[in-house]
Amino acid sequence: MKRYFCAIIPLLFILPACQPHKQPIVQRDSTVTDTMVAADIAQTYPTVARPAFDINKVPETNLDLGSFPFFPAPKGYQYRNVKLKDSGEEYFLADGKLMPVEGKTFKAELVREESKPAMFSMSRVERSYDRMIARAGGVKVSTDIPTKAEMERVGDEEIYDKERGFTVGFGGIELNTYVLRNRGAEVWVQLSMNNVYGAICIIQKGEFTKRMKEADVRRDLSETSRIEFNDVMVDSEGVVPEVDTLLQQ
Predict the structure, then answer these.
(1) Are 183 and 164 in contact (CB under 8 A)?
(2) pLDDT, tens digit (0-9, with 9 covering 90-100), for 16-25
(3) Closest-CA residue to 96 (of 151, 41, 42)
(4) Distance (Å, whole) CA 135 – CA 133
């Protein structure tokens, strides 16, 4: 019995030495790790700040736009639930920023005509406004979706409670924003759409400069050798528009 006992005693010292070595548990600081990852991403993909929108870069035009709101609904579509105000405000998206614009306001839903129940085509509607506004001398300044941070910066009170986000309030939808500078005034147009209908806001900021009239020009033909004319309309630069001779034939 003593023999067995003596044989077991050495084993008690050998077995612990044969146990696998355990690595010490290291607590990882997730804050440090996340910071390092964020710094690496920022270095790889640096944030490029957008330049502030400059209205002075929009070309000016002297074209007669006609009566407010200037742009009719595209063929096959109609405006619904129209709201007209002599003075109103709406947020327009330009270069990623929502900017308040105030002036004479037109707000409406854009839907298919009742007699033409085809699907609402966002691409056709957008192309139609692109053409209309470009022909009037306007430019498209944005085709972006407002970021969550930008929406939060403006706030729900401005967008919803004060009803200054008629086209912005859709949320997560691309906004088509256009600007015209015409004879001292600005015309802003913003359109938002989904597969069912759209919303449009048109604002005229400022008043158009009245065209010059040569109402008092009465000269004696014998002295001036010019044809006498009354109330001739000329553009803002004082140049009489050329007459198309084809119309006189």
Answers:
(1) no
(2) 444 544 444 5
(3) 151
(4) 5
In 3D space, the residue among 67, 54, 187 whose CA is nearest the CA of residue 129 turns out to be 187
Neighbours of 211 (CB within 10 A): 13
Residue 135 structure tokens: 């022909």
- 50: which 2 tokens? 């957008």
CA distance linking residue 23 with residue 21, whole number of Å: 7
DSSP 121-182: -HHHHHHHHHHHHHHTT-EEEE-----HHHHHHH-HIIIIIT---TTTTT-S--EEEEEEEE
- The helix (H) or strand (E) run that includes residue 205 is strand 198-205
Indicate if the alpha-carbon torsion angle 84, 88, 89, 92 is positive or negative.
positive
pTM strictly above 0.70 = no
